[in-house]
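Exam revision sheet. Question 4 asks you to relate a sequence to its structure. Input first:
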Amino acid sequence: MTGWPRVLHRRDLAYAIVAIGVLAYPVGQLAGGLPHFPSRNDCVVPATHDGDIELVLGRFDSVVAASSARARFRTLGYTGAEVVGDGCGRVKVAVPGYPTLAGARDAAAEAARAGIHATLEQARP
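Answer key, structure tokens:
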């Protein structure tokens, strides 16, 4: 090993590998652009086919507001209404478990007759 001005020690080599990884990973991740954070609309998946469909009776900014609305919806006959987070910072009141789009559309029409602007969404796993 003569002729080498400086021989890397194993410890120096380990530090160099870690430093390259620490610098390369963020650069590689940002190469495709900044990370995408979901908007409030990204969490709304309109129902377009049969399957696990939710009748969403409303979206709210707080659990307190959603719970109050759920109590009102339950007095109107929506006893299966649940308060759940939508994954994008809001809370929704929904009746889950409609297996067919036709049945869910009938439920939305019934909600409209009761003065509720309901939407149909595919349930998210």
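Marking note for examiners. The mean pLDDT is 85.
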